[in-house]
Amino acid sequence: ETKMASAPDATPSPAGAPPTDDKNPGSMEDLHKKAKDVFPMFFEGYKFLVNKGLSQFFQVSHTLTLSNSMPSGYRFGATYIGAQRVISPQEAYPILLGDIDMAGNLQAHIIDAPTQNLRCKMIAQIQQSKWQGCQLSADYKGADYTASLTLANPDLIS
Question: E strands of the chain, at which residues?
């Protein structure tokens, strides 16, 4: 059985480990993520999801959705979690995530940590062979603060 490193998450310290004296509140994105996880996710229909770890660093997924309330169809996903920069047992970088449907609509994420305190993320959406959206963000984690910068749909070329 292969094990795959997980995407960066704030996880409690293992049992028996001394509590850390971390005064950093984390990013706003993490705060909203924790609040969103409390609410139930309603879904009408069927969703079949198959994940397969091909190696310690690479995983593929197949999703088939059958629903009247949202678009039905097949999606293929791939995840790569590198080991070039291991920040902690829960954090290894770079992380590449991609998800594509039968019409060629793509959603891709690239997450990297160039330094111990800096996290960079790019999210791109391509629909009908055209860029629909791009988001660039960077989080700097200080001793007792986190500073974030986000650019949504930046037009850097023209």
Answer: 46-53, 58-66, 73-88, 91-101, 106-112, 118-127, 130-141, 146-152
pTM confidence score: 0.75
- Sign of the CA dihedral 87, 77, 33, 11? negative
Distance (Å, whole) CA 48 – CA 65: 6
Distance between CA atoms of residues 44 and 121, nearest Å: 32
What would the pLDDT profile of 2-16 be if each residue is shown by its tens digit?
444 444 444 444 455
> What is the distance between the alpha carbons of residues 147 and 53, in angstroms, rounded to a whole number?
34
C-beta separation of 112 from 120 below 8 A: yes
Q: Could you tell me the two tokens for 125?
A: 């959406």
- Helix ranges restricted to H, the chain: 28-38
